[in-house]
Amino acid sequence: MDLMEMIRNRRSVRTYRKGEIEEETLRKVLEAGLLAPSGRNRQPWELIVVRDPQTLKQLSECRAGGAARMLASAAAAVVVTADSAKTDVWTEDCSNAMMLMHLTADAMGLGSCWIQGRLREAPDGRTAEEYVREILGYPEDFRLEAILSLGLPEEHPEAKTAAKELEKKVHWERYEGQVE
Ligand SMILES: Cc1cc2nc3c(=O)[nH]c(=O)nc-3n(C[C@H](O)[C@H](O)[C@H](O)COP(=O)(O)O)c2cc1C
Questions:
Q1: For residues 98 and 101, what is the distance between their CA atoms, to the nearest angstrom?
Q2: Pairing mode, if any, of strands 76-83 and 142-153?
Q3: Which CATH number among 3.40.50.1100, 3.10.690.10, 3.40.109.10, 3.40.50.2300 corresponds to the domain 3-168?
Q4: What is residue 90's three-state secondary structure?
Q5: For the chain, what is the radius of gyration of the CA atoms?
Q6: Nearest CA to ligand 1 atom 20
Q7: What are the pLDDT tens digits along the chain (180 aa)?
Q8: Of the residues 8, 14, 114, which should be mutated to test ligand 1's pocket, given the most ligand atoms within 8 Å of the CB?
Q9: What residue ranges line ligand 1, CB within 6 angstroms?
Q10: From atom 19 of ligand 1, which residue's Cα is the shortest distance away?
């Protein structure tokens, strides 16, 4: 697959069949995240890999409204935290790492989904960051960006194209209003 094909094929996959992810595959996904660009190359991310089914179950309850429920059937999760003291652009840096891991996972035949952690609440009223910190033990000054769920895909939605968006969302030279 060439890069554009990988980008068109990438989708959020929230249902997984039983089965483990090979260590080598998981390591490639992690490597992709660690190769992401970061402001001043500070690399503020600290990735916590979870494979224990009990812990995955606990993490699946980190978001009000069930937005993380797919973690209960995932084979693994990569929890992306940052040492925010290292840089003021840790959210951008961590988003880059998330995106590269998500894309790589998809291209390698895994199902994965971005689960937002930052600015989101747990069902008990705490922030998702506090809830996840209690389970995983990252330090007080580490911030939670997001969690990438990973598993063997039960289904994979169709590839997308951005043909319409190329007309509507791209403004050449100047913004001249929305084209209807
Ligand atoms: C910043 C961000 C936060 C997201 N948060 C969640 C989430 O908490 N739970 C979830 O199921 N999907 C989440 N998603 C996945 C989006 O819902 C998904 O990317 C979008 O619907 C487009 O679908 P696609 O990824 O299949 O193209 C998130 C995606 C991004 C980029």
A1: 5
A2: antiparallel
A3: 3.40.109.10
A4: helix
A5: 17
A6: 12
A7: 799 999 999 999 999 999 999 999 999 999 999 999 999 999 999 999 999 999 999 999 999 999 999 999 999 999 999 999 999 999 999 999 999 999 999 999 999 999 999 999 999 999 999 999 999 999 999 999 999 999 999 999 999 999 999 999 999 999 987 655
A8: 114
A9: 11-12, 14, 67, 113-116, 157, 160
A10: 12
